[in-house]
Amino acid sequence: MIKNVNTERPGIFSLVERKKWDAWKEVEGLSADQAKQQYIEALLEMFDHIGEQVNISDWLSGDANGALIKEKLALLGKVV
C-alpha cells in the first residue's frame, strides 16, 4: 500500500510542492500495483495525445533519439 500523506499541505505560494502533495493525497490507500497501473494508463494516454500532434514514426527515425527511448516506447506498444 502507498503510505498516507504524513505532512501538512504546503502553502498557496509553494505551487510545485502543493501539487505534489495533492497528487500524493489523491492516491492514498491504493496498493503499489494499482498506483503503477494508473501511472502506466496516464502515460499511454499522454503518448496518444502527443501522437495526435507529432508523427511519432518520423520523430523516432531521427538521429537525436536514443535506442533506450525507442526500446521503452516499443514496450508500451507505441512504435509504429
Distance between the termini: 36 Å
Major pleated sheet: none
- Tell me what portion of residues adopts beta-strand conformation: under 5%
- Radius of gyration, in Å, reads 17 Å
Query: Structural class, please?
Result: mainly alpha
Q: Flag low-confidence runs.
A: none
Number of helices: 4
Q: How are helices and strands ordered from N to C?
A: HHHH
| E-strand count | 0
Description:
With 80 residues, this protein is mainly alpha-helical. Helix content is 61%, strand content 0%. The chain is built from four helices and no strands. It has helices at residues 15-26, 32-53, 56-61, 67-75. The longest helix is centred in the middle third of the chain and has 22 residues, at 32-53. The relative contact order is 0.11. The mean pLDDT is 80.
What's this model, at a glance?
One of its GO terms (cellular component) is cytoplasm. This protein is mainly α. It is built from four helices and no strands.
List the helices and strands and how they pair.
Blueprint: H1 15-26, H2 32-53, H3 56-61, H4 67-75
Keywords:
80 residues, elongated, mainly alpha, 4 helices
